Amino acid sequence: xxxxxxxxxxxxxxxxxxxxxxxxxxxxxxxxxxxxxxxxxxxxxxxxxxxxxxxxxxxxxxxxxxxxxxxxxxxxxxxxxxxxxxxxxxxxxxxxxxxxxxxxxxxxxxxxx
Length: 113
Fold this sequence. Notes:
Layout: H1 2-34, E1 41-44, E2 49-55, E3 61-66, E4 69-73, E5 78-82, H2 104-112
Antiparallel strand pairs: 1-2, 1-5, 2-3, 3-4
């Protein structure tokens, strides 16, 4: 009897740690694949970025990967849908420093003010 309880506990632990999270990931991936629409930016499992231009009659995607270059890919080859960045304005701007102001003393003076 105790060995049966141990085996049952191991099965429950296996289900909780492995099977259940895998099912959740599969459902999330299926939802993402089914929600792809024209105009979405995608990243394929092969590492290509592109914008969905069309969904053909066989449920494949016609993706523009560069100006005027379209490829047809299977929906299951999509790795993720890339979310547009709304924080592009928050990026730090690069500051160009003239050569005469690039000395250590000039930099220290500029930082102290």
